[in-house]
Specification:
CATH topology of chain C: Helix Hairpins
Shape of chain C: elongated
Distance between the termini of chain C: 59 Å
Number of strands of chain C: 0
Chains: A mainly alpha, B mainly alpha, C mainly alpha, D mainly alpha
Radius of gyration of chain C: 18 Å
Radius of gyration of chain B: 21 Å
Strand content of chain C: under 5%
Number of domains of chain C: 1
Oligomer: heterotetramer
Amino acid sequence: MNLDHWLLVFILLSSFVTGLIIFFLKEEAHRLRTLLNLFGALLKVILVGVMIAGVQSNHVYESRLELLPGLDLVLRADAMSALFATLSSVLWLVTTLYAVGYLEGEPHRSRFFGFFSICVSATTGVALAGNLITFLIFYELLTLSTYPLVVHRGTEQSLRAGRTYLIYTLSGGALLLLATVWLHTLAGPLEFSLGGALAQVATQHRSELIAIFALLITGLGVKAALFPLHGWLPQAMVAPAPVSALLHAVAVVKAGAFGIVRVVYDLYGVHTAQDLGVLAPLAGVAAFTIIYGSVRALFQDDLKRRLAFSTVSQVSYIALGTALFGYLSTIGGLTHLVHQGIMKITLFFCAGIFAHTLGVHKVSEMTGLGLRMPWSMTAFTIAALGMIGVPPFAGFISKWYIGLGAVSSDSYWAVVVLAASSALNAAYFLPILHAAWFKQRQDPWPADHAHGAGEGHWMLLAPPLATAALVVAVGVLANAPFSPLDWVRYITEIEYGK
Amino acid sequence: MTLWNTAPWLVWCIVLPLSAGILTFLFRRAAPWIGIASALGSAIAVAGLAAQVMHSGPLRYSVGGWGVPLGIDLRADGLSVLMLVMSAVIAVAVSVYAACYFSDTDAADKHAAQAHQRAYFWPLWMFLLAGLNGLFLAADIFHLYVTLELLGFAAVSLAALAGKRAAVVAAMRYLLVSLSGSLFFLFGVAILYAAYATVDLTALAGKVQPGPLAWSALALMAAGLLIKGAVFPLHFWLPPAHANAPTPVSALLSALVVKASFYILLRLWFELFSAVVTPATATFLGLLGAGAILWGSAQALHQPRLKLLVAYSTVAQLGYLMLVFPLTQNAGSALTAWSACVYFVLAHACAKTAMFLAAGNIAHAAGHDRIADLDGITQALPLSVAAFALAGISLIGLPPSGGFIAKWMLLQAAIGSGEWGWATLILAGSLLAVAYVLRVLWHAFTQVEVARPLHRVPRTMEWSALALSLLAVLLGLMAARPVELLRTGAPASIHAPGQT
Amino acid sequence: MTLEPYLLYALAGVGLFAIGLYALIARTHLLRKILALNVMGTGVFLFLVAIAYRSEPVADPVPQAMVLTGIVVSVCATGLALALAHRVQTTTGRMVLPENDESGA
Amino acid sequence: MNFPDFNAALLLGAIALPLLLAAGMAQRGWRSCLLRLAPWAALPALLVMFVVPQGAAASFSWLFLGSHLGFDQTGYIYLLFTSTLWLLSGLFAQTYLVDDPKRSRFFAFYLLAMAGNFGLILAQDLVTFYVFFSLMSFSSYVLVIHNGENESLRAGRIYLCLVVLGELMLFAAMVTMATNANSILLRDAIAEPMSDVTLALLLLGFGIKAGALPLHVWLPLAHPAAPVPASAVLSGAMIKAGLLGWIRFLPLGLEAFPQWGALVMGAGLAAAFFGALVGVTQTNPKTVLAYSSISQMGLITIAVGVVLMVPSLWPTVLTAILIYALHHALAKGALFLGVGVASHAATRAQRLWLFVGMLVPALALIGAPFTSGAIAKTALKADFTSLPAPWADLLQIALPLAAIGTTLLMARFLWLLWSKPSAQGHSRYGLWIAWALLLVAVALVAWVLPIANFSGHEALKIDKIWAGLWPLALGIMAAWVALERSGRNGGIGYPRIPAGDWLALLAWAAPYATRIGRNLPNDRLIVFWKVTAASSLRALLRLGSALRWSRMEDYLRSWSAAGMALLCITVILYLLASAS
């Protein structure tokens, strides 16, 4: 059987079809919807597992559909796409569970979960895209499917956030489209290939390629929240917690970052990009964003806003790792793609639990939270420490490699940036931890839905605990086979032709 | 299978709706069924024709065997087949929708007008379809004139169908505009005949050379078609006429009727006048298109009513079609631009029909179409809002919709020929489209307890809108075949040597 | 260059077209507008007939066929226009198209 | 099971057991049982000392970035005093905190810090060291703020700031080292030539933990703030982790850095005196001890500086440093625990016993003859004689002076302890037992140390005894005088310096800084962007309404305009077509 041809399509459809069915479910069909959700998510994880096994044994999965002569819709599984696909499918499973618990009893759940599933299909599509056009298509699909999630609450504030989100992302998308078409006219089909495909073109169209790179990065930078294109992200945190988790950790922001990685490594080729001299400005922007996001996060009292600015900062690590020309920094950047996802999703899960169970939205209201909800707060703590880069948690591993890369490319300033950002991270996370664990609470909770005792619902609690365990595991077992780091090393070796 | 391959499908495309027009006029009670059957029948005929053209290239058929110069010839190539397919698809969907729309007695305020509307809709619509199909198959410019007029009469009558003051006034203006446009066109035909003694498109194609007669013919015909095609600044008649018509009629007018004029312009420009047109004229038309995009979008942003917004969006979208003229100037990207605009026509037809149908559903359910008061409409009409959103996606040009593929090709042509101005315009137009589509969708997510009594909207009406919008979105994934088909019999002027 | 008779007729046709167009634009009364359209149409027909006259010795049948068809179309158009104009008068009370306020429902 | 595997398992087990116990604390039902077990988690580490041969190594490729553990002589000495201290302090804490409601939290983090401490001792690669170093640092934060009072919280905050600062400096240094060596193994990393920046980062980064000047400020705040058993391990065991960092990471004995050597020696010397001088002004006995730690660590810092200057001295200096570390750790631990015992010593007899007992570590710290201090100082001084010109003489004078200072400090400490009102309530024997065991260790361990080429008997020579004796005597006399004077004046005669010395300046400046900081968050740039965007949008809209969109549209609809447009377009098309 020609499973190879269809596997990738099935991976996409596993969530897409689920989403479509869910749209037509009655609001009350809670059990069926949950079942469908989990079934889709599990199926996707399993299929992705099959794909990884195949990729590992040098199997080529490719599906192709001709859109226009010379313009194909290509799904292809390579090591890089496997990385992102795994991240999104695994985290989707967790987030689905969380979202089921989080939205219990709220209106419009069928709509929510429908778009939720489609959003993940789009993300997987972004991961599996085999050329820039396919990437663009799924990238825009992602924008569209997340908009309803952002405005889900339907309040004035969330609608405004949604509008900002669309204005930013669609403008970015327009630039991306422009760049893609331009590049297409210069270089043809724009297939992603490990090691890059534009070395030939670069000799003739140097200045065009530089301009296109700038356009591409601007377009992608909107989603990756590079300064000054990050404005939508802190606003979009009005969305329900599972959505924020998804936006920040799995889907939108990551799609942007992943796009930057793809463009630099698999489209331009890192050597070509270095040769064109476009990496240094990107690194500069990323570095500035890292610091800027951290500084801004420092002054936010709203927990989710603080986390949002933290994302602005943290995601730029990926860009920084990508842009510092070097084997090691690439490892760092790519690892951070995964690690940041796990950590940030944990943080948002926990923020959601605090808001949902106790009505705690602000950092200043978190005093004594550790004693009230020790498990949730433990997960939060682990993720926050990981964000700071405290060893041996996930964040440390990626920062370590970015640091190694910075030194090996003689960019000592990047080490300073890393250190400064870590210090700022510590400055905005540690006080939270301190207040939550070690301060005595005087006031009552803003809105205690659990009536005095206990943690949130198990469906809320299990996902962050699982991801927090992952944060520990990927750090402690970083060198073990099949860890993200291991996989990233494998990718990077191919990219640099080692 | 020989029947399938040899049957004169071209004739059936015209005869079926024409006879259906008479039948529906005679048998009013069965009119919806006859209408749907004829729409389906002509769809089958179009399918047969498409198979023939794909199989054996452009076709030509002499009605009654008279032949040139006195008889009427029909011809079909890639372009006309695509247009026919478009009209067939829209026809089926709109017929189904209309069958439901005009028999829905729930609409209390429409009781009086109901019977009257139902009685005249079907014959007029069938004549419209016949005129359209005839126009797409016409092989000579005079025949084009006649079908254009037939189309115009049917369209005007349909626009007046609602019978209300605004509708009648709009239809009157539409008629005057339409007639003057046709006369301009006819004058051009006369001049061409005076100069070259033939009206056959193919025969004329090689003959027309620059000169005062050709120039004036071009100017007259183009101007006539521009005003009939509602190209800025001659679009003034379109929004009231489209917005005040009954919903299925608005959809038809916006999706099909204005495209007919564009189709003719396309034929003339690339087949007849390819030796006459200059880059300056092309740029001028492009500038009109740019004006249309910006002006139409700006107007759409200011409209208080949903259907007017959609109508102005048509004005804006028609502007994109005008870009084909400047973008084909560069031989290297001519074919891309040409394919782009034809595909744009297809995508826009599907999306705009879906959008009008959805808007109609919303207006029907809410009892009004004031955008500001549409809060909570999703709860009542999730499918229609979804259809509106999906159609909006295609209008904006977001992937994977047909609009995306069309805009992709437009951009490709623009960038390929180094026309950065047009490229910027295309993107700016997309963002403006985002803005006006979002004006409506903004209200889709507001959470309001629906207190107002809402009219029930039949499922069929919702589904036909949704189906078309899905088609508009999926068009992006099946562009390869149509674009391939478009090369069949494509005018020589856009086939640059070496261009793939 | 001598002014051949057919050319004279053709130019007269052009003149009629121009007069009709002027009236269409300048006159506000609907009946006048409809008449103006008819004048325009007649101008085109005259032009066509003049062209048919060119070919010696027998007149070219094609333009004549066109004119015949054109007249049929023109009659239909006039009929439709009159009917609509009547409706305009009954709904607005005037035989004039209002210049604005048409977007309202 | 073959032996290498057994060794590996034991090395890992020494770290893992406390971790596991700490993790088990999360389960409410297991707590009471685990609390009883907690101190004994240090046993595997003790076992390692006796079972695992020196030079044993183990790699765990799946752990972190490939973890390498190893056991060498440095590790041996370190494990010796750390495990002893952790064990005895743990036992002490069981009694000391018996009715503290937060004792499970205390023990959980006590265990984590313990694991970190053992881990960094056994670590043989950068990452593993760094992991356990931070584990220890961050866990001990919780020990510092244990009692939750404002003082402790402030101390904790300052501690945490400096920990983070140190971590970052170390991160930068380690990343550089790992890149240059292309390996994370310690022995590879230090083999590469080291840049000045890296050296500075290492010195400062570990210096924070080791209480080196001027980054010592957290120490006199945090050590007293923590509960007594925690102070004992903080001041005894954990402070030595910074020193171990220097030993492991600096290219000691490989390369000469004369300037750096001089700087470090200067800093150490300054710390030795500064600690003593500021320490005697303190009123809290634990703060006095903390300053004493600064002073003592200053002495060891001098030794590090010596090696930086004269690399050839490394083997003997290492021995001296290790012995000094051992001696100081045990002695300081005993002193801190003694403070805890004092708070439960009710009767006069008990106080007397306490006082006598306290003399043992106090004298050892001063370096009185026949104590471990004498051995350590003798070893240290032996190396200083072969220094270049000014330093040998300078140190010859400075060390006895420092001993005088220490004497004063100890006198001050004992006086403060004695003058405290006697405690109420019943005595707890558990405290006494743990303390007494530690006293025994202080008295004996240094004498039976199995270190090659070294014996404590050197300190028994008569000149060495004299060298230890006279500073002690002078110090006691000075202390006597001071006590007399203060007794006559009814108070201490010299200015009080707040604990944390120069931080007080910062505290004074802080309000101004916050005021500036508070004005910053308004983020001018964002405001600018927002205002610009909003106003331009508004301007556009206003332009729109000024243009009267609908009015313009109505105009286009008028017949004259429409007709003109039609005519114009026709004419323009004609002209453009004919213009070619």
